[in-house]
């Protein structure tokens, strides 16, 4: 079973899309093992987007992600990193296909509603940036 870090960005929270986005992820069969509203600090945002440091959009990305509450989540499922990025859709909203979260709901690239980890290493680092190990629940497999 794999884990990933997903985060509904401030635009998704402000637009009241938390429920609909989480529903799509649950419909796909992923299990929510942690979830909370967070006001991201500047330090936390810079750690989260460390790979983009130095790019021309870095400062505006940090300003955007700290501009209001996000809904941070950890989900589990087989191949979830690849599969969740398919469900989310392409980063550029002009390339995000209908049927994906971004394709159906997003219309502007930096504010593209949701972030998803792109590798197991990123997932581990991003989960640790938002959650302590005790916050992740373990499901009883017999249920
Ligand atoms: P996300 O999946 O959160 O990962 C990095 C984010 O950077 C990405 O979604 C976009 O919101 C943002 N991003 C990527 N490319 C650009 C760009 N060219 N201009 C502005 N923001 C970008």
Automatic annotation (TrEMBL):
> Which residues act catalytically here?
115 (pros-phosphohistidine intermediate)
**Where is ATP bound in this sequence?**
9, 57, 85, 91, 102, 112
Q: What class of enzyme is it?
A: transferase
GO MF terms held by the record: nucleoside diphosphate kinase activity
Main localization category? cytoplasm
One family name in Pfam for this protein: NDK
Intracellular or extracellular location(s): Cytoplasm
Q: What cofactor(s) does the depicted protein rely on? A: Mg(2+)
Which keywords has UniProt assigned to this entry? ATP-binding, Cytoplasm, Kinase, Magnesium, Metal-binding, Nucleotide metabolism, Nucleotide-binding, Phosphoprotein, Transferase
What quaternary structure, including any partners, is listed in this protein's UniProt entry?
Homotetramer.
What protein is this chain from?
A: Nucleoside diphosphate kinase
Q: Which organism is it from?
A: Paenibacillus lacisoli
